Amino acid sequence: MNKLQYLKIIYILFKKELMSYFNSPIAYVFIGVFLIVGNWLFFNTFFLVGQASVRNYFSFLPWIFLFLAPALTMRLWAEEKKSGTIEFLLTLPITDWQAVLAKFLSALAFLTFSLLLSLSIPFSAAWLGNLDLGPVVGGYLGALFLGGSYLALGLFISSLTKNQIIAFILGLVACFSAFIIGADFVLANSPAIFVPIMKFLGLGSHFNNIAKGVLDSKDIIYYLSFIFLFLWLNVRVIERRAWK
Amino acid sequence: MLKGAKLTMIEIKNLTKKFGQNLVLDNLSFSVAKGEILGFLGPNGAGKTTTMKIITSFWPATSGSILINGLDTVGNSLATRSKIGYLPETVPLYDDMRVFEYLKFVAQIRGLAEGKIKPRLKQVVATCGLTKVLRRPIDELSKGFRQRVGLAQAIMHEPDILILDEPTTGLDPNQIMEIRDLIKTIGREKTVIFSTHILSEVSATCNRVIIINNGKIVGQGSPAELIGKYGNLEQAFRELTK
């Protein structure tokens, strides 16, 4: 299979997955909740602080994603298993990597689309005052990396069960754990020798760096490795057919 | 038909499948020639579905090998999968899609050339009698139509081999006749393996029958041979799978 054909198959699967998002009410509920909660939390404090800054928004975005990312990934494998369509999918002449990548990319595309709709927030801030662009660009970039990591983890968990609700709850717990181990208030109460490791492993601490507008290759490599690790584990689960 | 001219399409050698301690397929060996319609019979739990899942690369075998047109299903899985059309017993379909969306997706993912997709879709839709339901969401289809969509999906890429797991269960007599005719038409040039519990179907469509029980072949031959030996197929089935 040459590279172009390889990518074409991913693209065909990706399109189909993205279409199922918009065919089901999940997409609209997701976007609705995301925009309402996001805007409400932002404007709630925006006028109190009286500063044209979006730092606030990006400080609670990881917490919104914590609920929304597993909601996007929960059905991706669990539903295929429950309805049996996985038997159709995996007997097609496609590789397990193509199937996993297509599902991951469709969830990422959907998350990116929702993030684009939330651009109204920095635009309003810029209209009302003098907005510093660095943290905005950094915030969105960080949100994409963090969201991608949540999605890779959630997708992997969806491959472990037939039950969407279980996939959602376990996904939420797993994303929460991965996020929280690097958070300041956890680090403050942890034994000092573990602090550097926990800070490095936590999804949150890397997000804070990028959201400040500081783009460090260390953080980007961390996120890409995290995503790759869980996509790789996902492929291992799928190729073992280990859900019977 | 000349015996020497027959091309072996599927060759199963010493196929064994265990689930834990449970032996489902026990050293199963048989081959199927091009242009053959093979009826796969056996009581529930005999290993018919398991064999089909292994031929289609959905499950790995515990030991043994399967060659599709000379290619191994483990080492050349992508190549062998592209030669096979498969309708699983449960007829899994993407319920949230419409019939034409789903069939178009199947045509694309099966790698049909861009210009060939439309004519092929038209052909398949006509063959399977799906014109009336093209715009309907799949989850609103009746059992009969679901089965036809499943069949349309399986024949979309004009596969050399068609594997159908109980394709006629749950259908009314008219639908059964239609599917039977379709299998016969396809079986003229291709290789078909299908499992069924309806024994009259076997004598109507198959050139050859394999009866398995507890993961082993207990009888095989043409329907005429089996009928000659046991009186009728019911009797053959009863005696061989006791």
Automatic annotation (TrEMBL), chain A:
Entry keyword set: Cell membrane, Membrane, Transmembrane, Transmembrane helix
Species annotation: Candidatus Falkowbacteria bacterium GW2011_GWA2_41_14
Spans through the membrane: 21-42, 57-78, 99-125, 137-158, 165-188, 220-238
Localization, UniProt: Cell membrane
Protein topology in the membrane: Multi-pass membrane protein
GO annotations of cellular component type: plasma membrane
GO MF terms, alphabetically ordered: ABC-type transporter activity
Pfam name, any one: ABC2_membrane_2
Keyword Transmembrane helix among record annotations: yes
Major site of localization recorded for this protein: membrane
Protein name: ABC transporter
